[in-house]
C-alpha cells in the first residue's frame, strides 16, 4: 500500500520536472580496455547533488530502484547490477535504503570473441531522486566506447575503491526460521570477524518490517539476526548484513534450524561503558606525563603559585582549563566518529596520519617552545586570569596529548567506538577530564595549593627548563613529517619554522617596547601555516621501518608461521606514538631480547600504523582497540596473549622461554 501511494504521488509530480536538470547525474566509465572473449567491469557513477539521495536495489518502505535498458553490440552481454552497501534514512516513520552521496553501481561486460576496435556501449536509465520533502523521477542516457585491446586496466584504483564498497558474498549457506511475528536468520560469519553496530538490509520486498528495530547475537561462528515479520512465509530469504564500518556481506538463506542463545551484539552495556570511562580517566591522567603536555601542566601550576592565595581566581581558572580539555577531547572523538560513520577506517590519533596536521602541530609546539624561552609572551600559556585563556590552554593540551593510546587508554577507546553515540562522547570527555584532573585538584584543595613554592626568579628558570621537552617534541614532529612526506616535507617544515621564529622574535621585540600587535601576529602565523600546508607533498615518500629483524605484518604471515610451529610476537606501532617508540627502544630492540628470540625461534612481526593502514585499523578494532600500541604473543597451539602496553626486556624474554605447550 505504501509503495502504491508513493507511485501515485510521483504520477502527480509536475510535468515540468522532466525539463529540469537532474539532481543525480549518471556517468558510465570502464576499468580499462576489453579483451576479446574476456570481461571488463563498467561503473554507472551516480553524481548526487547535496541534499538529494538515490535508492538501493530494494529501496525500503518508499522509493524505486534504478532501471537500466542496455544497447549492446552483437555478442556482448552484461551481468546484474552490483550495488554498494546502502545507508538508512527514516522520513515520517518510513525506512528508506539510500545513498546520500556519489556512488557507483558496477556491472560486468562480457566481450564477444570477434570484438575489435572499440565496443559502443549505451543505455537508457530511470531512477528516483529525492530530498526529505520531495521526490522527482529522473531519466537519462549514457554511453561509452570501450577500446578492445590486450592491455592493463587504466582505472584500477577507482574501481578497487568501488569494489571495496560492495558487499562480500558468503559462500556458506544461511538459514532462517519463522516464529510468531519474528523472522530469525542464522548467517555463517567466523568469530574472528569483528561485528559492530549491525543492520540487515533485506534484498526482497515484503517479508520484514523495515522500520522495526533489529537485534543481533553471536553463537560461535554464526551471527543471528532477529527481525520483525511483515507478511507472508517466504521460501527463501536474501539480504546484506552491514557490520557498522561500511563493510557488508551478502547471503542467501533457506528454511532451517537457527541456534538459540549466544551473546548480544551491539547492545548498550552500561558496565562496559563505565569501565571505559574509568579507563579513559586514568589514561588521561597519565597523559600529563608526556613530554609535550607536562610543560603545559607545569606552567599552569606556576600560574597558581603566582596567583598566591586567591582561591576564587584559582578555581575559575581551573574550571575553564578543564572545560577546554573536555571539549577538546570530545571534539576530537566526535570528529573520529563522524569520519568512521562516513565509511573510513580511522582510529584514535587519526589526525596525526595527515602531514598537514603534523605541520600545524610542529608550528604550534615551536611557538610554545619560543614562549618558554621568553622570546615573546603568550597570555594563554603565560597565565592570563581570563577564563578564555585557560579554556584555550586546556584545548591545546587536549590536542597535543593524543598521539598515543597509553596504559588504560587503548581498551577504553576501543570500547568507546562500539558504544552508542552518547556513551562514546562520554568516554572521550572522561579522557579530557583526566587530563585536567591534576590542575583541578591543586586549584580546589587548599592544602595542595599551599605546598606550591612562592613566586620568584625560579619561575623563569623553570620555563627555560620546560622548553627542552617542548623542543624535543618539535624535533619529533619534524622527524615524523620526514617519515611520512620525505625530504620535501622536511624542507617545508624547516622553512616554516624559521619563518615563524623570525615573526615571533620581531613580535617579542615589539612587546618589550610596550607595543602590541597580537592579532596581526596571530593572523600572519595562520597565513604562514596555511601556505606551508599547501606546499606539503600529498603522498608518503618514506616507507615504514620496524625494528631490526621484524617483518611486515599481515594476518596471512602470522598464520603461516604458526602453521610451521613457530611462536610469533606481533607489535603494532606508529612513528607518532611516543610510548610505542619508548617500548621499541627500551624493550623490543635490545640485544638480549633478540638473542633469546633467535634461540627459541620466535618470529617478530610489526604492523606500522603511521599512515593509517585500513587493514591494521580493522584488526585493531577486532581486538577492541582504537589505537596503538598493541602487543600480541601467539603460540603455535593457538593461544594468543595480549601483553601489557608497557614492555620490559625481562617480560619478553620470560614469554619466549616459557613456551605454552
From TrEMBL:
Which superkingdom?
Answer: Bacteria
Localization terms from the record: Cell membrane
Q: Where is the signal peptide?
A: 1-17
Entry keyword set: Cell membrane, Cytochrome c-type biogenesis, Membrane, Signal, Transmembrane, Transmembrane helix
Q: Where is the Thioredoxin domain?
A: 530-661
| Membrane-related topology note | Multi-pass membrane protein
Q: Which InterPro entries match?
A: Cyt_c_assmbl_TM_dom, DsbD_gamma, DsbDN, Thioredoxin-like_sf, Thioredoxin_domain
Q: What is this protein called?
A: Thioredoxin family protein
Provide the species name: Sphingomonas alba
Amino acid at each position: 500500500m505504501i509503495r502504491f501511494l508513493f507511485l501515485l504521488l510521483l504520477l502527480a509530480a509536475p510535468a515540468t520536472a522532466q525539463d529540469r536538470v537532474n539532481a543525480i547525474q549518471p556517468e558510465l566509465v570502464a576499468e580499462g580496455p576489453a579483451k576479446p572473449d574476456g570481461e571488463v567491469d563498467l561503473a554507472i557513477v551516480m553524481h548526487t547533488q547535496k541534499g538529494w539521495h538515490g535508492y538501493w536495489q530494494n529501496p525500503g518502505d518508499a522509493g524505486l530502484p534504478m532501471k537500466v535498458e542496455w544497447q549492446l553490440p552483437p555478442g556482448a552481454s552484461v551481468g546484474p547490477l552490483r550495488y554498494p552497501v546502502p545507508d538508512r534514512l527514516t522520513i515520517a516513520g518510513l525506512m528508506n535504503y539510500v545513498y546520500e552521496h556519489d556512488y557507483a553501481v558496477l556491472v560486468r561486460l562480457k566481450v564477444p570473441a570477434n570484438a575489435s576496435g572499440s565496443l559502443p556501449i549505451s543505455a537508457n536509465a530511470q531512477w528516483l531522486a529525492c530530498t526529505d520533502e520531495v521526490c522527482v523521477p529522473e531519466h537519462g542516457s549514457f554511453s561509452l566506447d570501450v577500446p578492445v585491446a590486450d592491455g592493463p586496466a587504466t582505472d584500477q584504483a577507482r574501481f578497487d575503491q568501488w569494489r571495496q564498497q560492495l558487499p562480500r558474498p558468503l559462500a556458506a549457506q544461511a538459514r532462517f526460521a519463522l516464529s510468531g511475528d519474528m523472522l530469525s536468520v542464522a548467517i555463517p560469519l567466523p568469530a574472528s570477524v569483528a561485528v559492530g553496530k549491525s543492520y540487515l538490509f533485506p534484498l526482497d520486498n515484503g517479508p520484514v518490517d523495515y522500520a522495526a528495530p533489529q537485534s543481533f547475537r553471536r553463537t560461535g561462528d554464526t551471527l543471528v539476526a532477529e527481525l520483525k515479520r511483515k507478511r507472508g512465509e517466504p521460501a527463501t530469504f536474501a539480504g546484506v548484513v552491514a557490520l557498522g564500518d561500511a563493510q557488508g556481506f551478502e547471503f542467501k538463506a533457506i528454511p532451517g534450524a537457527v541456534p538459540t542463545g549466544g551473546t548480544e551484539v551491539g547492545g548498550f552495556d552500561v558496565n562496559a561503558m563505565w569501565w571505559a570511562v574509568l579507563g579513559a580517566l586514568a589514561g588521561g591522567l597519565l597523559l600529563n606525563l608526556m613530554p609535550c603536555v607536562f610543560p603545559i601542566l607545569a606552567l599552569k601550576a606556576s600560574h597558581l603559585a603566582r596567583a598566591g592565595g586567591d582561591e576564587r581566581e584559582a578555581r575559575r581558572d581551573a574550571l575553564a582549563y578543564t572545560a577546554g580539555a573536555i571539549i577538546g577531547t570530545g571534539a576530537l572523538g566526535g570528529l573520529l566518529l563522524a569520519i568512521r560513520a562516513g565509511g573510513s577506517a580511522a582510529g584514535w590519533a587519526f589526525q596525526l596520519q595527515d602531514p598537514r596536521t603534523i605541520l600545524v602541530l610542529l608550528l604550534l609546539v615551536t611557538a610554545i617552545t619560543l614562549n618558554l624561552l621568553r622570546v615573546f609572551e603568550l597570555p594563554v600559556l603565560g597565565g592570563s586570569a581570563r577564563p578564555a585563556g585557560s579554556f584555550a590552554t586546556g584545548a591545546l593540551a587536549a590536542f597535543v596529548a593524543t598521539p598515543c593510546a597509553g596504559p588504560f587508554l587503548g581498551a577504553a577507546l576501543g570500547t568507546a567506538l562500539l558504544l552508542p553515540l552518547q556513551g562514546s562522547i562520554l568516554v572521550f570527555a572522561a579522557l579530557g577530564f583526566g587530563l585536567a584532573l591534576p590542575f583541578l585538584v591543586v586549584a580546589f584543595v587548599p592544602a595542595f595549593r599551599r605546598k606550591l613554592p612562592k613566586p620568584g626568579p625560579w619561575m623563569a628558570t623553570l620555563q627555560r627548563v620546560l622548553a627542552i621537552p617542548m623542543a624535543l617534541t618539535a624535533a619529533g614532529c619534524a622527524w615524523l613529517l620526514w617519515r611520512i612526506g620525505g625530504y620535501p616535507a622536511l624542507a617545508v617544515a624547516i622553512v616554516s619554522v624559521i619563518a615563524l621564529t623570525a615573526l615571533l622574535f620581531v613580535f617579542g621585540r615589539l612587546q618589550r617596547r610596550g607595543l602590541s600587535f597580537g592579532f596581526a601576529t596571530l593572523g600572519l602565523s595562520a597565513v604562514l601555516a596555511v601556505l606551508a600546508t599547501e606546499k606539503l607533498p600529498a603522498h608518503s615518500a618514506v616507507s615504514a621501518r620496524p625494528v631490526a629483524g621484524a617483518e611486515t605484518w599481515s594476518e596471512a604471515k602470522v598464520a603461516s608461521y604458526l602453521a610451521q610451529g613457530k611462536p610469533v610476537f606481533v607489535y603494532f606501532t606508529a612513528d607518532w606514538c611516543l610510548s610505542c617508540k619508548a617500548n621499541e627502544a627500551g624493550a623490543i630492540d635490545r640485544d638480549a631480547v633478540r638473542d633469546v628470540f633467535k634461540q627459541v625461534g620466535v618470529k617478530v612481526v610489526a604492523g606500522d600504523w603511521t599512515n593509517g593502514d585500513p587493514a591494521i585499523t580493522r584488526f585493531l578494532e577486532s581486538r577492541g582497540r582504537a589505537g596503538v600500541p598493541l602487543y600480541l604473543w601467539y603460540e603455535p597451539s593457538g593461544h594468543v596473549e595480549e601483553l601489557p602496553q608497557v614492555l620490559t626486556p625481562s617480560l619478553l624474554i620470560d614469554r619466549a622461554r616459557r613456551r605454552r605447550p
